[in-house]
From TrEMBL:
<dbReference type="InterPro" id="IPR011527">
    <property type="entry name" value="ABC1_TM_dom"/>
</dbReference>
<dbReference type="Pfam" id="PF00664">
    <property type="entry name" value="ABC_membrane"/>
</dbReference>
<dbReference type="GO" id="GO:0005886">
    <property type="term" value="C:plasma membrane"/>
</dbReference>
<keyword id="KW-1133">Transmembrane helix</keyword>
<dbReference type="GO" id="GO:0005524">
    <property type="term" value="F:ATP binding"/>
</dbReference>
<dbReference type="InterPro" id="IPR036640">
    <property type="entry name" value="ABC1_TM_sf"/>
</dbReference>
<keyword id="KW-0812">Transmembrane</keyword>
<dbReference type="InterPro" id="IPR039421">
    <property type="entry name" value="Type_1_exporter"/>
</dbReference>
<dbReference type="InterPro" id="IPR003593">
    <property type="entry name" value="AAA+_ATPase"/>
</dbReference>
<dbReference type="GO" id="GO:0016887">
    <property type="term" value="F:ATP hydrolysis activity"/>
</dbReference>
<protein>
    <submittedName>
        <fullName>ABC transporter ATP-binding protein</fullName>
    </submittedName>
</protein>
<keyword id="KW-0472">Membrane</keyword>
<dbReference type="InterPro" id="IPR027417">
    <property type="entry name" value="P-loop_NTPase"/>
</dbReference>
<keyword id="KW-0547">Nucleotide-binding</keyword>
<feature type="domain" description="ABC transporter">
    <location>
        <begin position="313"/>
        <end position="547"/>
    </location>
</feature>
<dbReference type="GO" id="GO:0015421">
    <property type="term" value="F:ABC-type oligopeptide transporter activity"/>
</dbReference>
<dbReference type="Pfam" id="PF00005">
    <property type="entry name" value="ABC_tran"/>
</dbReference>
Amino acid sequence: MVCALLIAVIGLSIPMVSKHALDLIAEKDFNTFFLIILGILVAHIIRAALQYIVDYWGHILGVRMEYDMRKDLFRHLQSLSFRYYDKTRTGHIMSRMVNDLNEMTELAHHGPEDLFLSFMMLIGAFFAMVFMEWRLALAVYLFIPFLIWFAVKQRVKMSEGFRNVKKKIANVNAQLESSISGIRVSKSFANEEHEMDKFTEGNKAFRVSKNTAFKNMSIFMLGMGFTTNILNLVVIGFGGYLIYGGYMDLNTLLAFILYVNAFSQPIRKLTNFVQQFESGMAGFDRFMEIMEIKPLINDLPHATQLKDVKGHIRFNNVTFSYNDHEKVLNNIKLDIDAGKTLALVGPSGGGKTTLCHLIPRFYEVDEGEITIDDKDIKHVKIKSLRENIGLVSQDVFLFAGTIKDNIMYGNVNANEEELILAAKNAEIHDFIKDLPDGYDTNVGERGIRLSGGQKQRISIARVFLKNPPILILDEATSALDNETEIKIQRALEKLSKGRTTLVIAHRLSTIKNADEIVVITEDGIKEKGSHHDLLQIEGTYAKLYKAQFKGYIPDEID
Ligand code: ADP
Ligand code: MG
């Protein structure tokens, strides 16, 4: 701000000083004239240095803000719960993270000092001009309100256009994200053209929005240039008339021309500020929109650490729904003793996965409670709760990176030996060690370079390394062929030893030995008991089991 003030002072004095220098020529004092010209040169150099400071530090300020805000936004995104991600498109988040934040910090980059400098220049110049020749000053300043009105109006139009552009680019991003991550599906359906059409639609809307924005921008630039020229013309025309009438001398007119030209920059900046403010605030609103979303699942103030877990899990009359009109789980009662295995069986859509997701509190129960070792999971710290639960599911997600990175995700502090032991337990070590790069093999995006069974075993190794007392296996083997399944089954049996295990499996042969089997349908828990008991009562389970051996599936069961 201090530098900006000095810049304004220098900028305002130069025309005035120049006029004095020219007056000296009339008095034939060439030496002083030359000294003043040198002085003005020095002033220009100082002004340039000050301008550098304002620009550089202004940008540094913006860059720091952007860094901090992006960090905050990322941290906030990490804290948001499943429900948020159930309904949000990745591309839209990307757009906010990259474009909107940038837009907003542009404002912080130059905003305040530009605004300050421009006001100083306009007001200072007004007084300087009135002091020199009030009639001409008045003529010039009659123009200014009109100029500002036009500039602001056109700027607003322009920024509305650019805001629209931003919305459209967010859609292009979202479309791109979805198309690229689904590229293998598109190809398998030979639907590249269809994807192209969908993309083109968004891309076209983006183009059209840019056309409008640029049209308004061109009108703005044209208007600004034109009015500045007219202003110059007025100064020369009216000034010439005043000189003719003997009200003013030529040197004053020259100083006026210098002032008028020093004007166009502040006015441009002022209107620039209006636009930056508009789009910066739009970006800020979009930033705050995310920041203001409360993470639905939080630690309660008195939450305690979940420690020394034995693994006794209980569902006390648990009811849950994703929306208001349909209960997915209704009044569920379950009791799993520490170290025991409970199997969940039932038609797809019955709520088995949902039930599993309630234990690590991915979603919050609507009614009832879930306890671990008789502690309500609502009253323990979420981090400690999740550290005690290992989840292996059907769709494995591997992060881009090496096999080692992916296994170590289970425990980033593990050492080499522990890593290899986990891989051995997951029956994947032999495969990894024969790879040219071994554990440092890159798995590609989402582990695309590995087979389903290999990915699954890496995800199991991850849980071995995590070593949690509670284990959830959600159809961990259903995507696999028989041979791989046997291997994985072996690994899973090893994994569940000594842990409380909740297992969901398609193939009932794999859960025969569970301590208890629960049949869950859309109406709730239908049957409960050991494999042997359930076959005896000849209910749903017995039907399912027989069907799997005969190779057909009765109608009533999905
Ligand atoms: P299962 O694992 O037994 O096949 P799920 O627990 O996946 O069943 O699903 C139970 C019901 O909840 C289904 O009707 C499904 O459509 C619905 N559902 C699952 N996940 C969500 C979600 N994230 N948002 C809304 N509804 C969901
Ligand atoms: Mg499921």
